[in-house]
């Protein structure tokens, strides 16, 4: 094995295990974001100056920290208060972490510790938090902290609007509290709704582990919460069994801490938060589900392992249609789904390890698939997701609903932000006004570079800027082979970093993508964007019913990943790949980084000019002036000549700083200071606005 590769590999490990050593500036930045709530915003521009070399680039990219996924990306974790429950009801955070409780309902709410140790009242000043109000609570000690809303929970604090915060590395299994053990087989008991039970919830509450709840056609205006393991929840008709949140209830169907629950053949719509939602479970299966126009995610598994989501459709969510978050190893498969009309088709914050996104269709979103790392959630970094055989099409939907911070991810097919060792193979990626595949670093508490991505045998066309983009100051161990494409930025990725080559050069580039995205982030922060309304996204046509042979199998979901291992034996193109290739209008990709990031706007143009052209101008003037000075001194120093040419910026900078120059002092100073200074100013303005 080549020495260079080994060295890179070593660095890869270094970045994964000890990233903090290079990120003190970024950490300060993030603390400021938290503390600004307590009016202690401090100046970090001195640190920025010191770190300019690395961090100017890093900060640009940092604007993308929030690109993908959550609104919880500025260093704290949210718990939403809705009418009348907490979401998620079980939230895990780091020791010393902060939870922001936000009332997004219409009723007044609060959160008070069962042992009275803390309360949102301490921060907010009143127990009466109305819609839009927020309060922060910090948890300095590890432990399990149950809490409740004094308005909407019973006096014994056991029923109603209750939740639990788990802090740090402590064992907590809500199921052991319930004393219900999962079972691997159906009990043979079927509980029918509405003939035996008037609502889905009453059937669920009556069920024992291993029972099936079978739901007849109807619109069910309820919020179903499942805490009993191994239930099979099944609709008799996928398109006619509908759980409707009516834009007032939080989640249509939620599974909290109950292992092995399968949900099949039904529709969820109009929930304020999520359509189908598993949280903190081991074993889950979703099949033949339709989720549309839900206010956060369509189909969502969080803090959960060993799952399969298949033959499903989700659309019209202002975050993502499908989301697998915070798991390692996830042991999860998404297979044969369609995601459209959302901000993100797929979001996968800190999710990976035996995670397969295969043979699915991601189209008409803001961005197709976007795995990313966030320090504010557990288990960073995102790593080892496999994206095989998908159709990724037309993710340029300006009418889609989105939250501000997803705006800069517009117009990309597959976007990896701060992920490690992801595998992207045999995907058809067509018609994205920015990039087909783009790898970016991601800055939050740590500066996460996207390393070790394998990009193989993909077909990419019709990208506005470039088909494959490796953005940011540097990235290592990525490889590119066998792709069908027109352009890459930087040039020659397949030639310099082939997957079979023993050498993979460290490469970065495309800083203009970062600057454009930064401008869009500023626009987002200032509200200069117009999101579509998730409530009025297109209503999907009838989706395929669960086939009879699948209906004949009634089984809890204790080991779905193992049961579906046949799906992941090898990468294959999507069965409809030929059809999409024939229909797609994707022509060759061109233009490149000369073009501003789409859809741009005034700021994007300004930032593009500064960020894209200024470095060239600075480079040219510094280099020219250095050679002019050498000429005037009649000095022919080969060492300096080589340094100036071979070490961009730093070579000529060192030359100008070494003294003895024939150039007047005012000229040298204004050239050096104004060149870098304007660039720094542009970056600082953006950072101040964004954080
Ligand atoms: Cu309440």
What does this molecule look like?
There is one protein chain. This protein is an alpha/beta fold and 691 residues long. It folds into 3 domains: 1-70 and 332-538 and 571-597, no CATH class; 77-178, Sandwich (Immunoglobulin-like); 601-690. It has 16 helices and 43 strands. The protein has a 20-stranded parallel β-sheet that branches. Strands 12-15-17-19-22-25-28-31-34-39-42 form an 11-stranded parallel β-sheet. A 4-stranded mixed β-sheet has the order 2-1-4-6. A hairpin with a 3-residue loop joins strand 35 and strand 36 (447-448). Residues 1-74 have low confidence and may be disordered. Copper (II) ion (CU) binds next to strand 7.
Give the topology:
Elements: H1 3-17, H2 24-35, H3 45-50, H4 52-62, E1 77-82, E2 85-87, E3 90-93, E4 98-103, E5 112-113, H5 120-124, E6 134-138, E7 143-153, E8 160-167, H6 174-178, E9 190-193, H7 200-206, E10 212-215, E11 218-220, E12 224-226, E13 232-235, E14 241-244, E15 253-256, E16 261-269, E17 274-279, E18 282-292, E19 297-302, E20 305-310, E21 313-315, E22 320-325, E23 332-335, E24 338-340, E25 344-347, E26 355-358, E27 361-363, E28 367-370, E29 385-388, E30 391-393, E31 412-417, E32 423-425, E33 428-432, E34 435-440, E35 442-443, E36 447-448, E37 454-456, E38 459-463, E39 466-470, E40 472-475, E41 479-481, E42 488-489, H8 493-496, E43 507-509, H9 511-525, H10 548-552, H11 560-563, H12 577-583, H13 602-632, H14 638-646, H15 650-657, H16 665-690
Parallel strand pairs: 1-4, 3-8, 9-10, 10-13, 11-14, 12-15, 13-16, 14-16, 15-17, 16-18, 17-19, 18-20, 18-21, 19-22, 20-23, 21-24, 22-25, 23-26, 24-27, 25-28, 26-29, 27-30, 28-31, 29-32, 30-33, 31-34, 32-37, 33-38, 34-39, 37-41, 39-42
Antiparallel strand pairs: 1-2, 4-6, 5-7, 7-8, 35-36, 40-43
Helix pairs in contact: 4-9, 9-13, 13-15, 13-16, 14-15
This protein binds copper (II) ion.
